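Final report, Chapter 2: Outcomes

The project's central promise was a pipeline that accepts a single protein chain and returns its three-dimensional structure in a standardized token representation, suitable for archiving and comparison. That pipeline is now operational. To close this chapter, we reproduce one record exactly as it appears in the project archive, with the input sequence first and the structure output second.
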Amino acid sequence: MPIRFASRVRVLPSLAIAGAALAATGLAESLHAAPRQVAVAEVAVPDDLAAWRAGIWEAALDGDDETVSTYLTDLPRGADPAFVTNLQEALAARDSHAAATDEDRAEGRQAAAKKIEDALAGNDLTKALTAAVELQTLSDDWNAVLDEPGIIELIRVSEAAEARARAESDWLFVQEILFRLRTLHEDTDRKAEHAEYEQRLDEVNRRIGLLARYAPRALHDLRGRQMARLEPETEFPPFNEAFAEDWKVPLEGITERMVRSSMLIGATQHISACGWKPLLDGGLEALEIFASTDQLSENFPGLAEEGKVDAWLDRIRAQRTRLSETAAAAVGRQDYHAIIPELLRANPETIAVPEAVVLREFAEGATYRLEDVYEDQYTQMIWPEQLRRFEQQVQGDFVGVGILIRHDDKRELMVQNPLEGSPASRAGVEEEDHIVAVDGVPTTGWSLTRAVDEITGPEGEEVVLTIKREDAEEPIDIPIVRDRIKIRSVNGWFKESLADDGTPKWDWFADEDAGIGYVRLTSFNDDSFDDFLTALSEMRKERPLNGLVLDLRFNPGGLLESAIRFSNLFVPEGRIVSCEDRDGRTVWSRPAQKQMAFLQGLPLVVLVNPGSASASEIVSGCLQAHRAAVVVGERSFGKGSVQTVHDVSDPRGGPAAFKITNQYYALPPAPGEDRGRLVHKMPGADDWGVNPDLAVEMTPEQTQEAYELRRKADLIADWDEDRDPADRPDPDALVADGIDPQLETAILLLKARLLPAAGDARMAEAG
């Protein structure tokens, strides 16, 4: 059986998987239940070892999976017998893993079909729809699933249930149904149906966002209904009244001047050249949705008075009608100056909400319109309450104790997890600890914003967290000295130890005999490039580095300059990346510097998936265009836009900023191309992101299992004196057990590219 490089795969939502059989239709059996075979083309495979190594690598760079398969089934003469045996064993293991995955997929289809049947019999629509998505994901023809009578009936039942839930304002149930209906139609030929579900889901998500922002009791009640539906045996806690006034905090410091400045920047500088009209209409639409979400009357009594709401909506709709009848070119700043004053005058006479609510919702609606129409979810207001956290995120480091926090179901502060090697981790803070006081002040009623403000502070100063732990009778005080928290983005194959300051010691080799290094890069921050150079130095001190796997999966991006420096290591000449304006003109370009390319020629495989975005796509796309690496995995996310941040602060309010998309990244042109591709996912586009040279499938179960194994293997801090270190997961299982076929493929390709000649098993370092 030849090696199989495969198709697309969907990552399922992390919800309870359930539902499906429709045995009467034979659904599971009809959807490609038999293992798939890959036809192998007639290819002349050279006997010469050097030509064979070059040929298989060129085929991989070309994305010619059939030729790669042919080469792997016809190994050359003259290769070192031990390495040939090792390569043959790796190939046999991968074929075995692929066959087992096919069997698992077939069994998964049967199980999903049974889940649908059982869920419908139990009147559990959520489980039935989730199982339908699972069934479709495990099938080769996603369109065929939608044509099955049982799925057609399931969609009809779901539509009826959604209408009933909408009439009852049960927005979380509406969201559940629409999310799964949209997912069923995603990446199929049913584009119109998908667009409709997308639009309806967006509207519901906006209503839920309003409840989260302004009506915590109403949202709590909806969550209780959801819990009763999904987990009827679980007791849902009552609403914590201490959080009833939280909605006021995000409104502090908001002024009309901030909104006015931001709208001017958006109308004149956005990449779409959209002008004023969509921004103004988007703002008005948001205020219309706000006023028609009746649960918001919890804190805004005016929304409970039908006459006042109608009067407000009449003003809104009149303005929207006027805009719709005006040519876009004729809509300008004067329209903003007409609309906003009228709204601010009408507000106290009608719904009578705080002025900051009107301003915030108008601005949020304006930027949302850019997302809805132009696929730009990156242009956004950064309000006074958000600015400090935004700046910390951009900088990539911060001063604090090194914990992630959240609210539990009782709205109490809980440690989601302490960052490994952080001051909190070293002091003994544990996952799921409850923080009941900070420096002796009880945290009851605290928002997450206040908690962050109180826990963080000047470097070197002490803060005392009072912790309530499930297995402890009394709370304990844990003093922690604040320190600068380093976000470590460069990770290796196996973490051998952890220094007192949190610095890890890595084993960098995924295959030590072949000299194949492994680096998992989780972001591109200020320290990433220097940390990568340190990793290279540590590898080369240990043994020759002959090949490298650069794992960019689930890397959301980061700093442009860091991405350029990474790319330049492998690319000696030509363009690395450029930027285009709204007219397609190149506004700047970064060429490679030859003296930086000291890794030129090093056999390199880059792993990408839909979680690879922005800077990850610049690196993988550049290396692919210059044939400096084989890209393996799944198509990347498609975030290739550039944002600039503008100060829109107002002395009468507070500091604020407006982040706007105004350029697109362009990859360097591939050989034979005049112009490089844009990786950004454009409205209505079928082509975006970085398409791997070799597409390799992972099932949702494999993705989850690989993530969990890697996470547990990396957590040295969890393996204390009371635990057996031998129980710590071994990352070798990712390949040995076929858990991660993308990584397995990368290592197999590098083994083939590095196959040594007989008597030359001690290979010199490549590149």
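Archive annotation: Residues 489 and 522 are 5 Å apart (CA to CA).
This record, like all others produced under the grant, will remain available to the consortium after the project formally closes.
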